[in-house]
Fold these 2 entries.
Entry 1:
Amino acid sequence: AIAKDALMTQPVTLSTAGSIAVIEINNPPVNALSQAVRQGLLDAVVQADADAAVTAIVILGAGRSFPAGADIKEFGQPMQDPHLPDVIDRIESCSKPVVAALHGTALGGGFEIALGSHYRIAVPSARVGLPEIHLGLIPGAGGTQRLPRLCGAAMALDIMFKGTPISAQDALAAGLIDRLAEGDLRQAALIYAAELQTPRRSREATSGLADKAAFEAALTDAEETARSRMRGQMAPLKIVQCLRACITQPFADGRLFERDCFFECLASEQSKGMIHAFFAQRASAKVPEASRAEPRPLNRLGVVGGGTMGAGITVAALNSGLPVTMIERDHDSLARGRANVEQVYDRLIAKGRMSEAQKSDIMARYQGSTQFADLSEVDMVIEAVFERLDVKRAVFEQLDKVLKPDAVLASNTSYIDIDEISSVTNRRKHVLGLHFFSPANIMKLLEIVVPQSAADDVVATGFALAKILGKIPVRAGNSPGFIGNRILGKYGDCAAHMMEDGATPYEIDAAIVEFGYPMGLHAMYDLAGLDIGWDNRKAAQGKRNPAERYVEIADRICERGWFGQKTGRGFYLYPDGARIGAPDPEILALIEAERAKKSITARRFTAEEIMARYLAAMVNEACEVLREGVALKPSDIDVTFVHGYGFPRYRGGPMNYADSYGLARMLDDIRRYGQHDPIFWQASPLLVELVASGQTFNDLNKG
Ligand code: 3H9
């Protein structure tokens, strides 16, 4: 018999409650399934199964969650026994009923343990899912074989393709869990286990396979999605193949096939890139200021400006439960600001994704005013007015007069110097910059711009806000364009040079899309509005180095009033409000005329050369951003470009990509390009230094 509370292999414990064996996994913070956990789990299951006094087994997670998956830190190292699929098979083959008791996030291998268990009970707040796709992987511990047998292909594919966890309620409705636990989970699981007589094995389930035609149709749809929307990625197609095995092969063969596919994905650059992106995202939230100071309380937010950005920020805050006071200069503007906010919810209602009641609940947190004095109680204000220094300064002067002494003041700006804004206040240390990306309620990236004068707890509050809003924060120094737009400026220039030298904007965009971006640079310019860049270029006139190469093509386009999608044409044509542009022969003629003016004979660029130059310009400028301390570490630049600029996540980000391309090779490229344009192509001293010392960006991340 098992001694009560006997401690087995840490971090898994086996104890008994009456005749029920309780196996508890305790590996903080998320009970990841490291080798010690797998071994402990296997030992505990074997022991409990062999114990004649035990009638049923409960598996649960200590702390905040049932296991959230395999231990990602072990990926890339040799796999050690016991393997998770084998542990789960052993659980499934138990002679007594096994109950998985779920709370928190039962994800990946954790959910696969639950699927291999005979019965599943969960607290109402639990969520379950198979997020492997976000790591460039497929579920590799039976998930692709057991889940479809329980719920059919359509739902299984939805869970695996989206990778987002579903609620316990949805899982219950789909038969993926059997019961919701009211009250204490352990107690509820013990009661449930005591009722159960016989094991029930997912591998033998047939309900999901019953409608073979529907199963096949779901596979065909998914394959189409994998080839179009998820183009370039390996895991989605592998998932489809594994699901096909559910209807063409016995379980055991399907499991082996899944295993091969899993290892193939694990060995791929894609998965390495995505795992890098996963850890980079977590590392970007760890900044020195936040380790030195606690954030200030954040219970109420003020937003100044109800335009596109102000309304988007307001929606993001309202959605996360924060009450918001929006300030506009007069009643009409305020009405428009409120309408901009409501419009977001009305669209959701129209699509059937929100009810009027839910909208009213959210809007109850919204307050509008034309009086700055109404901000006297807020903890933080985000100014989101027109992107002009004098306008922003006028707002900050007002804020300085009315805010409580410890309120945080933030300016939402994409390029204005925060010091120039804060200098009109008597509270510079309470000021920081927040660069939201449009649409602010959707885009995840948030550049947190830290001026020299900002107090540590102000910076910590900026990061706390990002967490509340569900944004991915990156710390940026207060330098023109911060991290993202500064680097974009550079590779944008590189693209313009290639265009003048012979590549069409359409060839450049095609190469970028082929590389894995959702859209090309010129399509993106058209979407954002070409007038923005034009205004910036006009403002920079006179400040530019006259020896620097300057391409006038975009200016010529803007002079015609072609500002992109909103005017029906830019680099592309958008007839009848089309969202996807068509190539424009007039643009090609205009480019040719510009070349002729400079006596440039167009030459051909391969897609490979386009990308080599484009990425070299990006990475070289990123090195300067690092050298100047504008970004703290290479992985922060990766996070910025993956989450704000469409860089394919499966490549990890530009710095991770550069490591795999080879820094010495990239430096050689830059020096070769520099023979023709030594001003633009100056190798960053940081890149030179890394190559000389044989280091990579990843070494800098670790350091
Ligand atoms: C898999 O299961 C493969 C199987 O199918 C087959 C195997 C054969 N491993 O995100 P947080 C760390 S693939 C190691 O800030 P939250 C994380 O790095 C896996 N570490 O918290 C962080 O560490 P630190 C499938 C992990 O509350 C800390 O935990 N599963 C893992 O915002 C807190 O994380 C997934 O892909 C892990 N699996 O979110 C789930 N997970 O403090 C991935 C987390 O040092 N994880 N850490 O920075 C998540 O989605 C979120 O972390 C979670 C918690 C929702 C669980």
Entry 2:
Amino acid sequence: MKILVTGGLGFIGSHTVVELQNEGFDVVVIDNLSNSSETVLTGIENITCKKPIFEQIDLREKRAVQKFFQKHSDISGVIHFAASKAVGESVENPLLYYENNIHSLVYILQELQQKNEANFIFSSSCTVYGQAEAMPITENAPIQPAMSPYGNTKQIGEEIIIEVCKVSNINSILLRYFNPIGAHSSAEIGELPIGVPQNLVPFISQTAIGLRQELSVYGNDYPTPDGTCIRDYIHVVDLAKAHVIALQRLLQKKNVEKVETFNLGTGTGSSVLEVITAFEKVSHQKLPYKIVARREGDVVSAYANTDKANRVLGWKANSSLEEALESAWKWEQKVRL
Ligand code: NAD
């Protein structure tokens, strides 16, 4: 079966392409290389002995998307990762985010809507919950007003999909990721943020390798045991595997609703200081860090209730925080040294 992975050369997409190929799927990747590089294809090939078909297309170009679906009329499922994802940048340039994340989604759905049957998996985010009242967060927790244009594109994206699926033959699964980290154990693929990393773990590994002088911890006066923010860090390979399972659920028509939603996390929250300590342990490096003021928009705590994904998908995150950090460190060393 042929599966389209948009954004398939990015961080989560590339790991998902590997898992799809491992399961025998034929993969076609669309990516415009705005936040990735074609060399990722070699990393994927080194792991799986197979290079996916690659189409360098910008999904904001409606005509190019139409042409793609004419050429690949035998696509059985789409996993849609392609999006811009930097929260701060989205605040400075909201239209870039609405254009990229919404137009891309709409153009793909327009093509899928014309098919007799279509299966669509969407990269959503735990940001839709904002600061949830109860921990761990279930899929039924209320959606809070988005705190950034980026977050808003995920909420709007979910709404668009729900409305389109109601009136079409598209079935969809919305996957709400918590905090993906780590890299493939081979260190052939991993996270390669362009510029200053926005997320904790790449910042940590870049500091450990000497690329950044010091790590800033944003606030240690939050109402948490050590005062720093708590997140649910999930190994990217565990996350990638969940996509394959979700896709199989749609392909085998096991879904019970036209649109299903699942949290993907480990179910365990870790504070920033706990992550630093765990990283120091696995890397045998002392991390220089300083406590600075809170960062606007950060929620205090967010970790997943993963019962639904465990029960319905039969999926569970297997890797520990230490294993995920170890893989991130191995990748950082491979890339920089
Ligand atoms: P990434 O930036 O590494 O990957 C996205 C890929 O999409 C990149 O290769 C980029 O070049 C490509 N792309 C962007 N716009 C495109 C366009 N118009 N046409 C074609 N290709 C385009 O990001 P990621 O971390 O792998 O995230 C994947 C998805 O998961 C995104 O939708 C993101 O919003 C979502 N998500 C990520 C996180 C996270 O922490 N990484 C958390 C929750 C949700």
